[in-house]
């Protein structure tokens, strides 16, 4: 810090001018870049939100919930493992429908942390969360299996939704998000339609695939849920996996998986969340390809429930109903999650449950049940899976 | 410490002989010296004990703390040690930590000596660039290294084309240690460089008079005098590499090399059925290991008088001339800086301007600003950048001030609990960030009035501050040890009390070290994130947590964009700080 060489005045001036030149160059680059990244133009229609009206199948006294909500101060706190991008259109449209809601804070936590935080705060008697949202099946099942963990509220929208929309008592599905198989199309050389296809390729040329396949780490909760779902839903799964896993390496997030498939470190990988893979397919067209395997496409419901002592319980009810409504489901799709209400149409850049059914086939769909897996079963499964992985 | 007591006695007898002793206000019959010292002890103790106590308690409870039905049990410890493969985890961690510490010192010491004490071409530029990796969190350095040297990295692909194979394997313990060492070397460098700038030129002159050449002076005088900063740096780096998560997570998971931190992460936080008891008991064990290393450090530096080099007589260190050797030295440093730090960081910056980054396609084909647009579209992402800056600025001032007073109490007082202050100030380095977060979360929940702090920026500042305290302490302490006690004694002789000596003499001499500590703390707090994972709320997110969010979504481009913004903020602050300090020097 106490440098010995003293800088003279001109020296300092020169340094500032270098800085100026450099920053001008950077801004120039920025300007030219923004010029070429023109908006490709979204073809999706603007989501129409009707204020103050509800569908005919809502109870006649629905207005009382709205009135009660107005008295709650227009705030809503959500604990979720869902990203800001996914939330943005949902919040925007919800606030359009109920303009008295002025502040929605959505904490983005780890899938299990949502409940750890909620439980800790409930025990200290100061729990600010109104709504809990996560797709961590095991964590939800464990949390909501105890009494008084979620508010007992059934949305009037349930009548219009498929029966799998009710994941557990008091827990509804906000979206039905699939996981799939991704591969590097420029390095792999052939197209895949299923995990079994990949197994055949690996068997034909084991040397090419050594350490070149990535799976999701099954000791993590997401990896466990989707991998176990696949194995439970497809009777031939272990035969297929026995061929693939010795060449595979585990990763802890879909983000890492898609990045390394794009770079060529891996040739293929499963099970990758569609919300992460779809945008990458668009960005890296010609290199990165994402499919729903025909021998088993696992679909995870994203559970949404209201906290038992929610400070803004009525606003929370309005929010839950809205998310499940047609308007809300359109917003869910716009945010990048997978809407499952029949009436939501698939347009460019938005994804629906029907689209997965069309691509993978009705039989291939595996919906993961919201049930606790016993510790012994967890251990048996992870030991078997990890035992097959290459060392 | 003995000299100090003597000095006091001498001073006292002097006073009785000559002038009357100056009057200082006394509260309840206790001098203000003791009051200040006790205040420091209490603050530091509260600071450290608050998050540790809930963890220790958790480690002997059968259920999570919020569950009142839990009972006392050692099950968590039993489970930890019976968990399959835990022996391997300990072994991996030990190899990784020792190798990282060794490599860090191997990079940092020669470079600090060469840059600060010898005449090197472009010395100033080299000195600056040596510190770059410190501005980037090791998570990002890891991304950068994988993009270049990973199995499908840009450089690996090129090397493969030339010689047919890749002669290294990044996904291994040496690979992890090398990356981590590049990331941590700046800490050791700064410690050593600060000490070298103040080293006593009279010793070198004496050697020169006796006929020693520059090389001999280097190895017989300059390097041995570096022992305090080296010991501090190694202890700090050793414990940092025990608890570091990002690099082992990035490199180790695919090849299933597990170390302590990834074990905690996968078995605790990411687990299918998380077990907070195991988390807490594992943290307790790390705590014991680190306390042992700190004790070792104290033993090694017991005779600290030997390293005194700033005495009452001012000297000016001269730079040694190494002759032709300096060109080899320069070349080595340049290679290190370019391949270790510059290329990975440049790659990161380039990454932020492209849609996809792969050796399969020229990155210039998909140039874009979209990554920055994503960051600046969402209010909460912008907020997180502001939050980080506010936290780092406030934290830097408060933590450095506390650290400076703590150092003086620990090293320059007859305070009975001086040692305790030192141990407490260094203890946080033993607590993994996530644990600090959970611990404070609980502390605020139990504490009266804690609700007001919970989830706010203040909570994050406190947690990050605790994490940064050892760094600040470690960077100020060696500087103080170089200041001879004769200066204190002189102050005492003319009647200043302990506080007076600190305010009038030591404070001024410690200004460079204080400024250095502030910078270190600022940068540490700007890139820190693990403690915020549990503590921050929607309104108090920081850059690091936002990056993690974006990374998990697969939005790597925006992660790089945020990283670039973070590097830019750091560069501006560090640049301004250097300018200001130089101005002061010139004046």
Distance between the termini of chain A: 49 Å
Shape of chain A: globular
Order of helices and strands of chain A: HHEHEHEHEEHHHEHHEHEHEEHHEEHEH
CATH class of the largest domain in chain B: Mainly Alpha
How far the N terminus sits from the C terminus of chain B, by CA atoms, comes to 36 Å
CATH architecture identity of the largest domain in chain B: Orthogonal Bundle
The number of domains of chain B is: 2
The portion of residues assigned to helices of chain A is 40-55%
How are the strands ordered across the major sheet of chain B? 1-2
Sheet with most strands of chain B: 2 strands, antiparallel
The general outline of chain B is globular
Helix content of chain B: over 70%
- Which whole number gives the mean pLDDT of chain B? 80
What amount of the residues of chain A lies in strands? 15-25%
């Amino acid at each position: 810090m106490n440098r010995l060489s003293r800088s003279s005045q001109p020296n300092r001036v020169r340094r500032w001018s270098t800085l100026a030149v450099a920053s001008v160059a950077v801004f120039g680059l920025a300007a030219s870049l923004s010029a070429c990244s023109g908006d490709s133009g979204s073809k999706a229609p603007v989501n129409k939100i009707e204020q103050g009206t509800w569908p005919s199948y809502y109870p006649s006294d629905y207005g009382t919930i709205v009135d009660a909500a107005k008295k709650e101060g227009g705030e809503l706190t959500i604990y979720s493992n869902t990203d800001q991008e996914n939330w943005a259109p949902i919040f925007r449209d919800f606030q359009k429908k109920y303009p008295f809601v002025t502040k929605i804070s959505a904490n983005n936590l780890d899938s299990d942390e949502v409940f750890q935080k909620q439980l800790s705060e409930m025990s200290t008697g100061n729990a600010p969360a109104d709504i809990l949202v996560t797709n961590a099946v095991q964590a939800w099942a464990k949390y909501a299996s105890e009494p008084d963990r979620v508010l007992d509220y059934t949305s009037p929208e349930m009548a219009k939704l498929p029966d799998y929309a009710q994941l557990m008592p008091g827990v509804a599905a906000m979206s039905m998000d699939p996981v799939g198989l991704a591969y590097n199309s420029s390095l792999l050389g052939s197209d895949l339609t299923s995990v079994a296809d990949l197994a055949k390729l690996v068997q034909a040329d084991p040397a090419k695939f050594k350490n070149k396949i990535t799976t999701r780490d099954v000791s993590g909760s997401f990896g466990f849920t989707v991998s176990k779902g696949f194995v439970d839903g497809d009777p031939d799964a272990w035969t297929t996996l026995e061929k693939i896993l010795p060449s595979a390496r585990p990763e802890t997030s879909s983000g890492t998986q898609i990045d390394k498939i794009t770079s060529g470190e891996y040739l293929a990988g499963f099970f990758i969340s569609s919300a992460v893979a779809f945008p990458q397919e668009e960005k890296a067209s010609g290199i990165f390809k994402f499919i729903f395997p025909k021998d088993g496409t696992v679909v995870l419901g994203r559970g949404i429930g209201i906290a038992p002592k929610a400070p803004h319980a009525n606003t929370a009810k309005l929010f839950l109903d809205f998310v499940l409504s047609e308007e809300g489901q359109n917003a869910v799709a716009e945010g990048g999650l997978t809407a499952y209400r029949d009436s939501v149409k698939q347009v460019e850049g938005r994804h629906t449950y029907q689209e997965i059914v069309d691509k993978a086939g009705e039989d291939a769909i595996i919906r993961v049940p919201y049930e606790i897996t016993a510790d012994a079963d967890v251990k048996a499964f992870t030991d078997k899976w990890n035992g097959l992985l290459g060392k | 410490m003995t000299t100090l007591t003597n000095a006091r006695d001498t001073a006292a007898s002097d006073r009785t002989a000559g002038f009357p002793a100056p009057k200082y206000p006394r509260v309840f019959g206790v001098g203000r010296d003791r009051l200040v010292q006790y205040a420091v002890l209490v603050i530091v103790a509260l600071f450290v004990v608050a998050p540790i106590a809930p963890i220790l308690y958790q480690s002997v409870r059968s259920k999570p703390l919020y569950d009142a039905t839990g009972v006392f049990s050692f099950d968590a410890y039993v489970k930890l040690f019976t968990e399959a493969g835990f022996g391997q985890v300990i072994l991996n961690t030990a190899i990784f930590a020792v190798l990282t510490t060794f490599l860090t010192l191997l990079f940092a010491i020669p470079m600090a000596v060469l840059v600060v004490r010898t005449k090197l071409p472009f010395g100033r530029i080299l000195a600056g660039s040596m510190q770059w990796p410190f501005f980037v969190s090791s998570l990002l350095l890891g991304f950068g290294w994988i993009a270049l040297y990973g199995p499908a990295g840009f450089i690996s692909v090129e090397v493969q084309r030339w010689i047919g194979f890749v002669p290294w394997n990044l996904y291994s313990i040496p690979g992890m240690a090398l990356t981590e060492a590049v990331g941590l070397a700046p800490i050791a460098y700064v410690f050593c460089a600060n000490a070298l700038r103040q080293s006593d030129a009279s010793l070198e002159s004496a050697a020169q008079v006796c006929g020693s050449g520059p090389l001999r002076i280097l190895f017989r005088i300059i390097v041995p005098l570096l022992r305090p900063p080296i010991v501090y740096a190694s202890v700090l780096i050793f414990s940092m590499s025990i608890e570091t998560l990002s690099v082992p997570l990035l490199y180790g998971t695919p090849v299933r090399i597990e170390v302590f931190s990834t074990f905690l992460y996968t078995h605790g936080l990411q687990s299918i059925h998380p077990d907070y008891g195991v988390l807490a008991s594992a943290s307790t064990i790390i705590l014991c290991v680190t306390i042992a290393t700190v004790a070792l450090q104290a033993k090694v530096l017991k005779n600290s008088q030997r390293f005194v080099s700033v005495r009452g007589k001012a000297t000016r260190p001269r730079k040694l001339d190494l002759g032709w050797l300096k060109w080899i030295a320069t070349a080595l440093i340049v290679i290190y800086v370019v391949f270790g730090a510059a290329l990975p960081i440049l790659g990161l910056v380039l990454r932020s301007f492209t849609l996809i980054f792969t050796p399969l396609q020229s990155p210039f084909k998909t140039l874009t600003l979209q990554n920055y647009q994503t960051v600046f579209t969402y209010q909460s992402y912008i907020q997180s950048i502001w939050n980080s800056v506010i936290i780092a600025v406030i934290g830097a001032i408060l933590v450095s001030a506390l650290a400076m007073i703590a150092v003086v109490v620990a090293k320059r007082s007859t305070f009975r609990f001086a040692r305790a202050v030192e141990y407490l100030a260094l203890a946080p380095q033993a607590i993994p960030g996530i644990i600090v977060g959970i611990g404070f979360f609980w502390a605020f929940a139990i504490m009266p009035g804690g609700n007001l702090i919970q989830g706010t920026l203040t909570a994050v500042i406190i947690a990050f501050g605790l994490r940064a305290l050892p760094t600040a302490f470690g960077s100020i302490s060696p500087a103080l040890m170089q200041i001879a006690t004769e200066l204190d004694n002189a102050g005492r002789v003319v009647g200043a009390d302990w506080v007076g000596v600190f305010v009038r003499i030591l404070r001024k001499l410690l200004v460079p070290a204080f400024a250095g500590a502030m910078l270190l703390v600022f940068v540490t707090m700007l890139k820190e994130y693990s403690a915020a994972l549990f503590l921050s709320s929607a309104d108090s997110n920081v850059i690091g947590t936002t990056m993690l969010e974006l990374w998990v979504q697969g939005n790597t481009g925006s992660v790089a964009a945020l990283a670039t913004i973070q590097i830019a903020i750091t560069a501006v602050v560090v640049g301004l700080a250097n300018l200001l300090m130089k101005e002061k020097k010139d004046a």
